Each structure stands twice: as C-alpha cells, then as structure tokens.
Amino acid sequence: MPKPVAATLPIPTTGASWRKSLALMKPVTWFAPSWAFLCGAIASGAAHWSVASVGRIALGMLMSGPIVCGLSQVINDYCDRDVDAINEPQRLIPSGQVSTHQIFVTIGCLTLATLLCAIVLGRDVVLFTALGLLLAVVYSAHPVRLKRNGWAGNASVAIAYEGLAWLAGHSSVASLTQASLVVAMLYSLGAHGIMTINDFKSVAGDRRMGIKTIPVLYGERSAAWQAIGLMNLAQLLVIMLFVYRGQWQIAMIIGALLVVQLPLQRIFLRDPRAKAIFYNASGTSFFVWGMLAAAIGLAIKS
Q: Cα 48–54–57 angle (5° rounding)?
C-alpha cells in the first residue's frame, strides 16, 4: 500500500518558521520609521549620551522599525495576497509557503511587543503609536482599504512612517514643540512622493485589481513628476522655515542636499518604472539626510 502523501512532506522547523515571519516583516522597510524616530528624538534637544537616554531612543527605534513597521508589513501582505498573486506570485503568502495560523501568531506577538514598548516610552508615544497602527490597518484592510486610492493611501503611510514616528521620537524624551510638529508634517508631505515612487513596481497588478495608485490614476510620467514635485516642495518649505528662524546654515545644508537630488531626479523622470528602484536607493538618501539636518537645527534652537 502506498504511503500517504502527507507522510512524505518535510516538517517545517521552528527556525524556518521564524525566518519566514521575519521575511514577512520586510527588514528593508524598517529604516524609514526608525530614522524618523531618531530624528524626532534629536529635534527635541533633550537627547544626550546617558545610558537612560540612549536606551529609550534605541527602544523607540526598535519599536518604530522592526516591530511596528514589521507588523504593518505583515498586515499589508495578508490583505494584499490576491493582488500579490498577480504582481509577485512567488511571495510567501500567495505561494502558500506561510500558513494563516503563522501569520496571525506573528501579528499577535508584534502587537503585544508594540504595546509593551510604547507603555515604557510614555503616554504620548502610546497615542502616536496607536494612531500609526490604526493607519496601517485602514490602509490595507477591507472595507476601508485606503490604498485603493493613491492620495489617501500614500498619505496614511507617509504620516505613519515619517510624521508619527518623528513625533513619537520627540515625545519619548521631551514635550512636543510646534516647530517639531511642523517639520514632521512637512517631511510626511515629502514622504507621500516617496510612496508614489514605490507604487511603480506594481502598476500592472494594481490596474487589474482596481487599486487606483497615483501611477494608475495619472499615468507613469505624470505620477513621476507629482512624486518629485511633492518631495521637492516639502524640502523647500523646510528650508523656508529655517530661513524664517534665522538658521541660515541649516537652511543651506538642506538646500545643498536638495540640489544633489536634482540630477538623480532627471534620471528617474526619463523612465520612471525602470528607474524607481534606482531613485529610491539614491535620491531618497539625500532626502533623509536632510531630515537629520533639520532635527539638529531644531535641537540647536529648542
């Protein structure tokens, strides 16, 4: 009598399961919110090299990046399993490599870790983190599914990854200031453009699934100009803010970083879909260095 098929299948190891959960959390995406948290903490002017201060900031960066961002990626991949079956069928969920049970266990563990970290960092951090998680859920999940519209979806991600992470970083070490709030929102505006650039990789599947990203709504060429325009507008407004504050050196540094982006933007605009990954790896680096310069400027005159 032949053996049952199930008896011949390999039994997944615990290590393999954790590696798949880690892959679902997409470590490559953790940098943006962790960096924004760090910039927010620096912008407070209260961050220093004591063990307590460094420990709080490190915990916040861990929470913002690997934990909260990782959690949002798992939720997004689960809610996107149908469109991913078209765009990227080799992914873990559409290819059947990860069970629904493992997905929900991962979500539960990350949610608990988020709650514990936020409580340690303070009441305001709990509030900003809760808002970020809410945006992550409504971005991906039915019936709201903000990602079906590029303007609303990209705004929710930009605010969560940049603005709320920055505000949580500031609030983890000091009371929030109006200037820090304004800068956080301006960089969220710029991050909306970065989110549009990320959408170029899945245009075909988004069209088939009725997801109206900016490239789907306006065409790739127009969407590319809109993305670059929002990024540059945000940086110009930050420069103007520091000019208004009389911090010319900070304004010049951010301005120089913007100028460096211009030739890279020209390369991206020639062929947006082909050069989207290139620009994310090059041009956006100078955008985030500008965030650090702005944070230092706020700390100097806090």
A: 105
